[in-house]
Design brief:
5 strands; alpha+beta; about 140 residues; Muramoyl-pentapeptide Carboxypeptidase, domain 2; 5-stranded antiparallel beta sheet; globular; single chain
């Protein structure tokens, strides 16, 4: 099976996460202008989550590094997003120190989001994701 499509559409995020994520991303871009901040993944289908989870675990992907740690990702709820920094020449920045610096310059916590570093430096999620998932029916939240 080939790689399922990667979703980058902010409209597919749960509104209770999308608003604070976009506010944080806007402030990050306004304060750090020498690079572009790009969302590389938003809501995931179960098929994509399964494919990502297989990386580093099952043939023919067992020799690759593990990409995700769970089948029940907050991405499936629209409560998480992955972002990267891109230089003006188009190359992505993967340096841990660069991500640490961004989080120091514009901490996500005041926006109601959090990062899960050092597990995944480019991943941010809704700070109250667990509570939102428990109350999914009450907050109009659905898992993909």
């Amino acid at each position: 099976m080939g790689e399922p499509t990667q979703n980058r559409d902010h409209a597919d995020l749960a509104p209770l996460f999308r608003a604070p994520y976009e506010a944080w991303l806007t402030d990050v871009q306004a304060q750090i202008r020498h690079v572009k901040f790009v969302t590389i993944e938003t809501r995931r289908t179960f098929e994509r989550q399964q494919w990502l989870y297989a990386q580093g675990r099952t043939p023919p992907h067992e020799q690759q590094p593990r990409i995700t740690w769970t089948l029940d990702s907050r991405h499936r709820w629209g409560l998480a997003a992955d972002w990267i920094m891109v230089r003006p020449n188009g190359s992505a920045i993967w340096s841990v120190q660069s991500y640490q610096w961004v989080y120091e310059q514009v901490p996500p916590d005041p926006y109601g989001i959090k990062h899960i570093a050092p597990l995944e430096w480019m991943h941010v999620e809704y700070r109250f994701a667990d509570e939102a998932i428990i109350a999914a029916a009450d907050v109009s939240l659905e898992q993909a």
